[in-house]
Amino acid sequence: MLTMGIDIGSAASKAVILEDGVRIVAGTVVSAGTGTRGPSQVYAEVLDQAGVKETEISRIVATGYGRMNFQKADRELSEVSCHGRGMHFLLPDVRTVIDIGGQDAKTLLLDERGNLSHFLMNDKCAAGTGRFLEAMARVLDIRIEDMGEIAEQSQNPVSISSTCAVFAESEVISRLAGGEAIPDILAGIHGAVAKKVSGLAIRMGYQPKVAMSGGVARNHGVVKAMERELGCPVQVPDCCQLAGALGAALYAYGDLINKRRERV
User: Fold this and answer.
1) Order of strands, sheet of 116-122, starting from the edge strand that comes earlier in the sequence
2) Each residue of 148-189: pLDDT tens digit?
3) What radius of gyration do the chain's Cα atoms show?
4) Side-chain half-sphere of 175: how many Cα atoms within 13 Å?
5) Which of 83, 134, 177, 234 has the fewest CB atoms nearer than 10 Å to its CB?
6) How many Å from the N-terminal Cα to the C-terminal Cα in the chain?
7) CA distance linking residue 82 with residue 243, whole number of Å
8) Sheet-wide strand order for 13-19
9) β-pair partners for 7
């Protein structure tokens, strides 16, 4: 039995195909989000990767910022629930999940069964989000995927005091004009993101073990800064960006099992 989860974010679309609720058959990411070709492209690519036809997919659950606009979905669920379920599948011992998306940042508290017990979200400001990092990469004229590696060269990290994305951009430009090294500025940017998002986790009452999901989790500079702020290790699964789509596929499988039980 094959189920699909599709996670349509503001900056990227992700999809996972799951077999019998236990094996990931395919998973892919397209760097285009809601309102673009991203959802249809990731849908076609994950089917091609799995080598299956759309008629072979028993159920589809959509999640993410653009979930309500994906017409092929059988139902929609919030990304909070799906990220929690997906991360529990990948890392069963994790109790706190930090997800930094393109438009918002979320901290989730899970129980031992992976159920969501509490969460906090920052969706009112770009600070501490993927958009913030994109803006900083643009100012520094570097690729966003290179930020973590470049920051590792830092010898004297600067402090970025502005939490507002607009003011932080001006501060970074000022730092560049003052001759500060790009690796030191990047280290400061990562520290600012970690400080902002860790504040959510602290207010929520985070518990070890802690993990990060989402695309920003691939930036080890942010992950290390988060570890410093929280004072504990932060785990990152290899397929961190697929966690929401995976959770949606797991919910789709659960729906089918529940329907089967109802018929018995």
Assistant:
1) 116-122, 105-110, 96-100, 210-213, 234-235
2) 999 999 999 998 877 677 788 889 999 999 999 999 999 999
3) 19
4) 26
5) 177
6) 18
7) 7
8) 23-30, 13-19, 2-8, 57-63, 75-76
9) 14, 63
Contacts with 154 (C-beta within 8 Å, 6 or more apart), sequence order: 181, 183, 184, 186, 187
Residue entry with tokens 């800064």: 225
What CA–CA distance (Å, rounded) separates 16 from 5? 5
**pLDDT tens per residue, range 232-249:** 999 999 999 999 999 999
Residue located via tokens 């100012």? 139
Residues 6+ positions from 198 with CB-CB distance below 8 Å: 226, 229, 230
Burial class (CB in 10 A: 0-12, 13-18, 19+), 214: buried
Cβ(12)–Cβ(101) under 8 Å?
no
| One-character DSSP codes across 97-137 | EEEE-SS-EEEEEE-TTS-EEEEEEE-S-STTSHHHHHHHH
CB atoms near residue 113 (< 10 Å)? 8
Model-level pTM? 0.92
d(CA 197, CA 105): 7
128 to 28, 110, 193, 200: CA distances (angstroms) = 25, 22, 4, 10
Give the three-class secondary structure for 152.
Answer: coil
User: What letter does residue 53 receive in the DSSP assignment?
Assistant: -
> How many CB atoms lie under 10 A from the CB of residue 48?
11
